[in-house]
Amino acid sequence: xxxxxxxxxxxxxxxxxxxxxxxxxxxxxxxxxxxxxxxxxxxxxxxxxxxxxxxxxxxxxxxxxxxxxxxxxxxxxxxxxxxxxxxxxxxxxxxxxxxxxxxx
Length: 104
Description:
This protein is an alpha+beta fold. It has a single domain, classed as Alpha-Beta Plaits, CATH 3.30.70.100. It has two helices and four strands, in the order E-H-E-E-H-E. The chain has a four-stranded antiparallel β-sheet. Strand 2 and strand 3 (49-56) form a beta hairpin. It is globular. The two termini are 22 Å apart. The model has no long low-confidence stretch (mean pLDDT 93).
């Protein structure tokens, strides 16, 4: 399993609900259609910081998700809401455990 973590800073804090809605409505369906997609989480850390975690089978699939997200940001005209390029960390997941009980 491969993970990609994107940390966005400087987000207009009055627009986090809009970003969340757009992620659910239009980004998640695009990511879900990618081969190897295993999961996505969006975390609102407050103070204009949001972090996403995407899980894929391979690093190539995670890289493709970056292209999808970049195009999505442009298509949704979110450059004013999310003005800064995200910090990205990516790598193999070396330990994990879920119990299947996660609910948003």
